[in-house]
Write a structure and sequence with these properties.
Elements (H helix, E strand, L loop, with lengths): L10 H9 L5 H19 L2 E4 L1 H16 L11 E5 L26 H8 L3 E6 L33 H8 L5 E6 L5 H7 L2 E4 L19 E6 L2 H11 L29 E5 L9 H16 L3 E5 L4 H26 L6 H9 L5 H21 L5 E5 L12 E4 L2 E4 L8 H6 L3 E8 L5 E7 L5 H12 L2 H6 L10 H5 L1
Parallel strand pairs: 2-3, 2-4, 7-8, 7-9
Antiparallel strand pairs: 1-3, 4-6, 5-6, 5-12, 9-13, 10-11, 12-13
């Protein structure tokens, strides 16, 4: 492999070269910083670059590896963080004016885990303000631009993470997902985004929006890279009251065993009630691709999903208001108008309504568990439509006028059940925008989801969806120099 395209390498590729001392973490970091300097003004993906600290970390990683203390596949790899993840001594803004000068004095648990794995934390990534939006164009620091088309949104709320990973500014990122905020940007930017099982990854040290729906998870360019990051991020943490005990796993183990004989459930309703024709076209091709890979396609009925989506929206509104209440009261002018109006609406939710939504949630979990007795995974589109223009709020989809909040329609239910879900590129629209598909699995079945996602990744249709040469720098060799 030529070093001239090192920024295009996967974590898997790069880690092998670093381990063999063929390339230095210092060399990789400097190349990444050069590209960020060249591209970030255009994309607006990063809010803060952790330049000096990352250079020290890269130098330390280089010395450790030379001395035979190789820590694993993330050692020396530049990784970004969504800017709601606390970093000691580094600004953590929540994409908002309220937190624009907030500097924590501690690291989030995921930061500690990444540092322990030897990763180089390169910067804090832009996001929809307070993580409360589907578009990524409502940040105090300005909208993030989609690398495939700068007129288009990247999706919220992990907008900077989607753009940075897709355009090679970093090799992976940790995002958050409350109603689809990892999977929406992953779909719109053409990358891989995993929302793990609720409790799989500690949320300690991440600024919360909705404690019972928030998840943290990895965003990468390849499925294997995603699994490598989840290896480092997962694990029980007593500091997080929502953290769940689970067996320690290597999510890359058996990732390439294929899906022949496996059963994929395709929902008979809800996921296709409101959907763009381009999304449906790509999804149908993916289903046929999975069939060609030897999987059995099984129609499944998932009843009550409209009610489950409503439950997600009500729980989110109630808990988001609680999280933001003191700022809404004390400094409302510092909360972006669209975010503020959504947050205030949560004040009107009654306790009885909230409890009813929790009952719907637990009924839906039981229903999904029954479905998983018949199939291994569920396959759906990630989003009902392709990315809209920045600032656009109403779009015409399938003959209906829809608000852009509909982007979370197909992702939100999995936040309510807490089941793992991964978005992977499925194809490209006629106008050249990525379209993702979503595999949903049983609780703590991330390894199985990676197997399905990996099988799809190896196919020709998937490869055509990942024409990154169209979106990244065409002059990466110049950046290397």
């Amino acid at each position: 492999m030529s070093k001239s395209n090192v920024l295009e390498w996967s974590i898997e590729q790069l880690s092998k070269s670093i381990k063999e001392k063929e390339i230095s973490p210092v060399e990789v970091l400097n190349t990444s910083l050069n590209l960020i300097s060249a591209k970030n003004k255009e994309l607006n993906a990063f809010i803060t670059i952790i330049e000096e600290e990352s250079k020290k970390a890269a130098k330390l990683a280089e010395e450790e590896i030379i001395n035979g203390n190789y820590k694993g596949p993330l050692h020396g790899i530049p990784i970004g963080l969504k800017d709601l993840i606390c970093t000691a001594g580094v600004k953590t803004t929540f994409g908002s004016e309220v937190f624009k000068d907030y500097i924590p004095n501690f690291d989030a648990e995921v930061v500690t885990k990444l540092k322990d794995a030897g990763a180089i934390l390169i910067g804090k990534l832009n996001m929809h303000a307070f993580a409360y939006g589907t578009t990524g164009d409502r940040s105090f620091f300005g909208p993030v631009k989609n690398p495939h088309n700068p007129q288009k949104i990247t999706g919220g709320s992990s907008s900077g993470s989607g753009a940075a990973v897709a355009s090679y500014l970093c090799y992976g990122s940790v995002g958050s997902d409350t109603g689809g905020s990892i999977r929406m940007p992953a779909s719109m930017c053409g990358i891989v985004g995993m929302k793990p099982t609720f409790g799989r990854v500690s949320k300690y040290g991440s600024i919360q929006l909705c404690p019972t729906l928030d998840h943290l998870g990895p965003m990468t360019r390849t499925v294997t890279d995603n699994a490598l990051m989840l290896n480092a991020l997962s694990g029980f943490d007593k500091k997080d009251s929502y953290s769940a005990y689970s067996n320690k796993e290597d999510f890359t183990e058996g990732i390439n065993i294929g899906i022949r004989g496996k059963k994929i459930g395709i929902p008979t309703s809800f996921y296709f009630d409101i959907i763009d024709t381009e999304v449906r076209r790509v999804f149908d091709l993916v289903v046929e691709n999975c069939r060609q890979l030897g999987a059995e396609i099984v129609p499944v009925e998932l009843s009550g999903l409209n009610e489950l989506l409503t439950a997600q929206q009500v729980i989110l509104a109630a808990e988001a208001y609680t999280s933001l209440e003191k700022y809404l009261i004390n400094t409302p002018e510092q909360i972006e108008e669209e975010v503020r109006s959504r947050a205030i609406a949560g004040m009107l939710i009654q306790a009885s309504e909230y409890i009813q939504m929790l009952q719907i949630k637990h009924k839906a979990i039981d229903m999904h568990n029954e479905v998983f007795k018949k199939v291994d995974v569920i396959l759906t589109p990630t989003l009902p439509m392709v990315p809209t223009n920045i600032e656009q709020r109403v779009t015409n989809s399938y003959g209906l006028q829809e608000h852009v909040r509909i982007f979370a329609r197909l992702t939100g239910p999995s936040n309510t059940t807490g089941l793992p879900a991964i978005s992977v590129p499925g194809g490209v629209s006629e106008c050249g925008l990525p379209i993702g598909v979503q595999f949903i699995g049983k609780a703590f079945a991330e390894a199985e989801l990676y197997q399905f996602a990996y099988a799809l990744e190896q196919t020709e249709i998937y490869s055509s969806a990942l024409s990154f040469d169209r979106i990244a720098n065409s002059n990466l060799e110049e950046v290397m120099e």
